[in-house]
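Fold this sequence, please.
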Amino acid sequence: MLILIALLSGGLFGLGLVVSGMIDPAKVLGFLNLFGGWDPSLVLVMGGALAVFTPGYLLWRKGHDRSVLGTELPRVPAPTIDARLVGGALIFGIGWGLAGLCPGPAIGLAGSLQWQAGLFIAAMVAGFWLVGRLQSVGSTAAGSGKP
């Protein structure tokens, strides 16, 4: 049942990206071009998504610690701005600005079989792997008492 819900949710998300035009890298780059022909449509898409999500989320979280399906909802950690967060945000933003894609739209664009989407996804997977390796090396070094 959970897999079916995840599949339907992902399909709806992907459809929303396609309908809104957010799988077009030129549209995203137009949003990031603040000093040229700025395209504000991405703000409207994000705002629309937040307008739908936020009220339901706040109402549900107010009195529930379990999801609709009964699984425990994770606790929201206190916000911490540290070097890892800032560094990750910078890398993500630079990649987004260079490619005009982020993970969701790239996967949606992959359905068009464009080589750029495949290259982006390969780089994304390599980045996931690299971060996992760096985190496991860091946790091993931290656990051994070595700096």
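Helices lie at 2-20, 25-32, 41-63, 83-99, 103-110, 115-143. Residues 2-143 form one domain.
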